[in-house]
């Protein structure tokens, strides 16, 4: 992944620095409004990362010790970690092979009377079937939180991922479709919850630092609950506003490159590229391929062959329940998760990628497959 950054972002960041206001301020507020409008949410709350966005989202649901949250193991470890930060317990569910996402069936297999929330991930930019998950969670009386870290620009039923969500969390890490360096966002349609989230990201203060500094009179804030320092800076938000303007072009380019990859790789038996689900369109934040168990070479050997050719690829999506951090954490059988994690790899895909670079990647894969 190579972020698509240029002179516009550099000028925007410089303007923020020269303004004298570099902490959370007016540019953050502008970015929040623009981002919320883009994804069809009423409120956006900018934070320091998607991990902190997830943490605050779960706190806003009043989760704590004794509660359980169903999460996919097939996700970056931050998804499960955010549950532990609240004192609740993550319960790992399996995913469907086609999308790498939770389904009502995989959630139902592990939920218990202690399940208070489901944390669904739009994995690698492939949208989860949130309409089905929302309906199931409503029947169960369980909250649904969307981990949309990779999801900006993806759609479900023609509408943005995250639209209509109880709470969604987003990432602007450099590996994502748009970036602010580090940074994240929480979106929600609930005004009271949004107000609390804004307090929580800023030490639980009743009046933000920006509001205090803007006032012509002394303002004495109070601290309504234990909060955190999860703020975004105006420098990051300035870059984010430019990046948001690039979103449609970025997604269109990634989808065109993904379609070309699909054509190049179609003749290789036993190699299945990621594709759009029936219920929506992905943004191809990650272009991952799944190898059949009898593929001529193993996943790690294929990564080595790509590296020998000067091509940077990565192992597929991790399985959190297999990591040392979760040793001893009980988990139900997760055969699909383990297969995807064991036999998948992520190929290079970025906005400025050339057809010649794609051809090089495809040539190595064909050669290793014996084609």
Question: What would your notes on this structure say?
Answer:
One of its GO terms (biological process) is polysaccharide biosynthetic process. The active site is at 176 (proton acceptor). Its cofactor is pyridoxal 5'-phosphate. This protein has 371 residues and is an alpha/beta fold. It folds into two domains: 7-245, Aspartate Aminotransferase, domain 2, CATH 3.40.640; 247-368, Aspartate Aminotransferase, domain 1. The protein contains twelve helices and 14 strands. The strands form three sheets. Strands 1-9-8-5-4-2-3 form a seven-stranded mixed sheet, with helices on both faces. The longest helix has 32 residues, at 234-265.
Précis, in short:
The protein has helices spanning 7-19, 26-39, 50-59, 78-85, 104-108, 130-140, 191-200, 209-214, 234-265, 299-308, 335-343, 355-368; strands at 43-47, 68-72, 89-93, 115-121, 143-148, 155-156, 159-160, 167-171, 184-188, 271-273, 280-281, 287-291, 314-315, 344-347. It has 371 residues and is an alpha/beta fold. It has 2 domains: 7-245, 3-Layer(aba) Sandwich (Aspartate Aminotransferase, domain 2); 247-368, Aspartate Aminotransferase, domain 1 (Alpha-Beta Complex), CATH 3.90.1150.
Write the layout of secondary structure elements.
Blueprint: H1 7-19, H2 26-39, E1 43-47, H3 50-59, E2 68-72, H4 78-85, E3 89-93, H5 104-108, E4 115-121, H6 130-140, E5 143-148, E6 155-156, E7 159-160, E8 167-171, E9 184-188, H7 191-200, H8 209-214, H9 234-265, E10 271-273, E11 280-281, E12 287-291, H10 299-308, E13 314-315, H11 335-343, E14 344-347, H12 355-368
Parallel strand pairs: 2-3, 2-4, 4-5, 5-8
Antiparallel strand pairs: 1-9, 6-7, 6-11, 8-9, 10-12, 12-14, 13-14
Helix pairs in contact: 1-9, 2-9, 3-4, 9-12
InterPro entries: DegT/StrS_aminotransferase, PyrdxlP-dep_Trfase, PyrdxlP-dep_Trfase_major, PyrdxlP-dep_Trfase_small
Protein name: Glutamine--scyllo-inositol aminotransferase
Keywords: Aminotransferase, Pyridoxal phosphate, Transferase
């Amino acid at each position: 992944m190579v972020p698509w950054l240029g002179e516009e972002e550099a000028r925007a960041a410089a303007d923020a620095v020269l303004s004298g206001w570099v902490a959370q301020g007016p540019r953050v507020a502008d970015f929040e409004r623009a981002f919320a409008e883009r994804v069809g949410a009423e409120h956006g709350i900018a934070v320091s990362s998607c991990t902190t966005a997830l943490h605050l989202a779960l706190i806003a649901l009043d989760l704590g010790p004794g509660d359980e949250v169903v999460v996919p193991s097939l996700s970056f470890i931050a998804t499960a970690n955010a549950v532990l930060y609240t004192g609740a317990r993550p319960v790992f569910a399996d995913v469907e092979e086609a999308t790498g996402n939770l389904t009502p069936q995989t959630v139902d297999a592990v939920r218990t009377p202690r399940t208070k929330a489901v944390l669904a991930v739009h994995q690698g930019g492939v949208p989860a079937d949130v309409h089905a998950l929302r309906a199931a969670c409503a029947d169960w009386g369980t909250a649904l939180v969307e981990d949309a870290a990779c999801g900006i620009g993806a759609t479900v039923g023609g509408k943005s991922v995250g639209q209509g969500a109880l709470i969604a969390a987003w990432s602007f890490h450099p590996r994502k479709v748009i970036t602010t360096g580090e940074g994240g966002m929480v979106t929600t349609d609930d005004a009271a919850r949004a107000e609390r989230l804004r307090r929580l990201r800023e030490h639980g203060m009743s009046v933000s630092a920006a509001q205090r500094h803007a006032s012509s009179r002394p303002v004495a804030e109070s601290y309504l609950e234990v909060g955190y320092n999860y703020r975004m800076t105006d420098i990051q938000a300035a870059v984010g506003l430019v990046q948001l303007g690039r979103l449609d072009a970025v997604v269109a380019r990634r989808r065109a490159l993904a379609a070309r990859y699909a054509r190049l790789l179609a003749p290789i038996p036993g190699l299945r590229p990621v594709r759009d689900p029936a219920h929506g369109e992905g943004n191809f934040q990650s272009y991952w391929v799944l190898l059949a168990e009898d593929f001529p070479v193993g996943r790690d050997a294929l990564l080595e062959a790509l590296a020998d050719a000067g091509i940077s690829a990565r192992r597929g999506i991790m399985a959190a329940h297999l990591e040392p951090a979760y040793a001893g954490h009980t988990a139900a059988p997760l055969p699909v998760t383990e297969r995807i994690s064991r036999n998948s790899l992520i190929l290079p895909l970025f906005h400025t990628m050339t057809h010649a670079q794609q051809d090089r990647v495809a040539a190595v894969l064909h050669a290793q497959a014996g084609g």
